[in-house]
C-alpha cells in the first residue's frame, strides 16, 4: 500500500463508505419509486422487530385491561367492535358505490364480494424522517396485501395507498406525502384537480385554474377514480383556503380528513377496477 | 465482536424506541434522532472509523423506514460519525457543557448535510414542521450527553450483580 494511503487509512475508509452510498443513491434515482434490494433487505430484517414490539405493547395493554375489566364482556365488545369496524367500511364503500351502480343484480354481486375485500390493520410506526410521508402497518403479503391497495381510516376517509409490501408488514404512502397525487373533485362534481401532498399537515390542489370559480373554501373533496388507484367517492379533505394569483393556476390548500395523531386502525381495501369501468 | 454486538443492540434499542415515541406523538419523531445518539456514542468511544461505519448502518436503517432515496441519511450519519470520532480524540469533551456543545455542532452539521443531499436529490425543500426540525440537533445532543452516565450506571449495576 502506498505510504500516503497507509498514513490516511481512516480517511480512505470514510471515502470508500461515502462513495459506496453515493453509488447506491445514483442507482436509485432512475428507479424512482422502486426500492433497491438492499433497502428491501433492511426493511425485511427490522420491520418484524417493530411489529414484535408493537404487538408486545398491544398485548401488555390488552392483558392489563382484560385483567381489570370483565373478561367476557371485554371479549364480546372486541368481537362487536371488529364487526362494527368491518360493517362501517362496507357501508361507506356501498354508499359510494350506490351512486355508480344501477341494476339490482350488480348491487347483489357487490354485496357478495365486499367483505372479502377489506383487511383491518394497525399502524406499527411512522416514517422515520417525516411522519407525514408513510406509516408501517401490521399486515403484509400473507394477509393478501398487494401494492396500490387503498387505505382508509376508521371513518372511511382516505389515508393513502399500500406502497411497499413485505411478508407481514407493509408501508403505506400517505396522501400528505409530497410524492402523492390523488385525482379529486368536489362532492357535487364541480371541477377536477390533483391533490398533491406537501410532506406536511396540509395538501394542495394542482391544476386548479384561476379562471374557474371552484373550488371554494369549505368545499369537501372526494376521489374521482381517474387515477386508477383510488376508487371514486372516497372522502379526502376540506378546502381551507384559496389564493388567486396572476399565474395560470391558483393556490388551493386542503386539510385532509384523516388525523395522523389518531391513526391506529386502518382498513386496507382491494379495488376491483372492472366494477368501476 | 462484543463491541459490534453492543452497537447492534444499541441500534435496535434506538430504532424500537423511535417507533414507540412516534406512536406517542408524531412531533417526537422530528424532535429526537435516537439513531444519531448511537452514532455519537460509538464514535466517541471507539474512534472515527467505527463511528463512520456505525453512522452508515444507522443512516441506512433510517432510510429504509422512510420513503425516499436509500443512502441520503446514510451519508449524513457516516460523516457525522467520522467527524465526531476524529475531533473527540483531539479536544477535551469531559464536562457536560463541552460535550453538549460538541454534540450539538456535529448534529447541526449532520442535519445540514442531510438537508443539502435531500434537496439536491428530490429538488424540493425538507419538511421543517414549523421549524421544529431545527431544534432536533439540540434535543438529540441532550439525549446523547445523557446516554454516557446512563450506560456507566448500567455497567456498574451489572458488575455489582455479578459480584453478588
Describe this structure in words.
The complex is a heterodimer of chains A (277) and B (164). Helix content of chain A is 36%, strand content 25%. Chain A has 277 residues and is of the alpha+beta class. In chain A, strand 10 and strand 11 form a beta hairpin. Chain A is flat. With 164 residues, chain B is mostly helical. Chain B contains 7 helices and no strands. The model of chain B has no long low-confidence stretch (mean pLDDT 89). The interface between A and B is large, with 48 and 46 residues.
Layout of secondary structure:
The complex is a heterodimer of chains A (277) and B (164).
Chain A (H helix, E strand, L loop, with lengths): L2 H5 L1 H23 L5 H32 L2 H28 L5 H11 L3 E9 L7 E4 L12 E4 L4 E8 L4 E5 L6 E6 L5 E6 L5 E4 L13 E4 L11 E9 L7 E6 L8 E5 L8
Antiparallel strand pairs in A: 1-2, 1-12, 2-5, 3-4, 3-12, 4-5, 6-7, 6-9, 7-8, 8-11, 9-10, 10-11
Chain B lengths: L1 H23 L1 H6 L2 H13 L1 H17 L7 H17 L7 H27 L13 H28 L1
Q: Outline of this structure?
A:
Chain A is α+β, with helices and mostly antiparallel strands. Helix content of chain A is 36%, strand content 25%. Chain A is flat and about 75 Å long.
Amino acid at each position: 500500500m502506498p505510504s500516503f494511503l497507509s498514513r490516511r487509512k481512516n480517511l480512505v475508509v470514510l471515502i470508500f463508505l461515502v462513495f459506496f452510498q453515493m453509488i447506491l443513491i445514483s442507482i436509485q434515482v432512475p428507479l424512482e419509486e422502486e426500492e433497491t434490494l438492499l433497502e428491501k433487505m433492511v426493511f425485511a430484517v427490522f420491520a418484524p422487530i417493530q411489529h414484535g414490539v408493537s404487538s408486545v405493547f398491544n398485548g401488555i395493554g390488552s392483558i392489563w385491561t382484560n385483567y381489570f375489566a370483565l373478561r367476557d364482556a371485554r371479549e364480546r365488545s372486541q368481537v362487536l367492535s371488529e364487526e362494527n369496524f368491518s360493517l362501517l367500511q362496507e357501508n361507506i364503500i356501498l354508499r359510494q358505490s350506490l351512486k355508480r351502480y344501477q341494476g339490482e343484480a350488480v348491487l347483489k354481486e357487490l354485496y357478495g364480494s365486499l367483505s372479502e375485500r377489506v383487511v383491518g390493520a394497525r399502524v406499527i410506526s411512522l416514517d422515520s424522517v417525516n411522519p407525514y410521508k408513510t406509516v408501517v402497518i401490521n399486515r403484509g403479503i400473507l394477509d393478501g396485501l398487494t401494492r396500490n391497495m387503498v387505505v382508509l381510516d376508521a371513518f372511511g376517509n382516505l389515508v393513502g395507498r399500500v406502497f411497499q409490501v413485505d411478508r407481514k408488514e407493509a408501508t403505506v404512502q400517505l396522501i400528505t406525502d409530497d410524492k402523492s397525487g390523488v385525482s379529486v373533485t368536489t362532492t357535487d362534481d364541480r371541477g377536477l384537480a390533483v391533490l398533491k401532498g406537501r410532506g406536511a399537515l396540509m395538501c394542495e390542489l394542482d391544476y386548479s385554474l384561476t379562471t374557474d370559480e371552484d373550488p371554494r373554501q369549505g368545499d369537501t373533496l372526494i376521489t374521482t377514480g381517474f387515477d386508477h388507484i383510488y376508487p371514486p367517492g372516497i372522502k379526502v379533505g376540506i378546502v381551507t383556503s384559496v389564493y388567486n394569483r396572476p399565474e395560470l393556476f391558483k393556490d388551493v390548500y386542503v386539510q385532509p380528513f384523516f388525523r395522523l395523531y389518531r391513526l391506529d386502525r386502518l382498513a386496507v381495501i382491494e379495488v376491483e377496477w372492472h366494477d368501476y369501468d | 465482536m462484543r463491541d459490534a454486538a453492543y452497537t447492534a443492540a444499541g441500534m435496535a434499542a434506538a430504532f424500537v424506541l423511535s417507533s414507540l415515541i412516534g406512536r406517542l406523538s408524531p412531533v417526537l419523531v422530528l424532535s429526537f434522532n435516537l439513531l444519531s445518539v448511537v452514532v455519537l456514542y460509538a464514535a466517541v468511544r471507539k474512534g472515527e472509523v467505527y463511528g463512520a461505519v456505525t453512522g452508515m448502518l444507522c443512516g441506512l436503517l433510517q432510510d429504509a423506514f422512510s420513503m425516499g432515496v436509500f443512502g441520503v441519511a446514510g451519508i449524513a450519519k457516516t460523516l457525522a460519525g467520522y467527524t465526531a470520532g476524529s475531533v473527540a480524540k483531539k479536544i477535551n469533551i469531559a464536562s457536560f457543557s463541552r460535550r453538549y456543545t460538541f454534540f450539538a455542532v456535529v448534529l447541526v452539521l449532520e442535519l445540514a448535510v442531510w438537508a443539502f443531499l435531500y434537496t439536491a436529490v428530490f429538488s424540493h425543500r425538507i419538511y421543517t414542521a414549523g421549524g421544529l426540525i431545527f431544534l432536533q440537533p439540540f434535543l438529540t445532543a441532550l439525549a446523547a450527553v445523557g446516554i454516557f452516565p446512563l450506560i456507566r450506571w448500567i455497567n456498574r449495576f451489572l458488575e455489582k450483580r455479578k459480584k453478588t
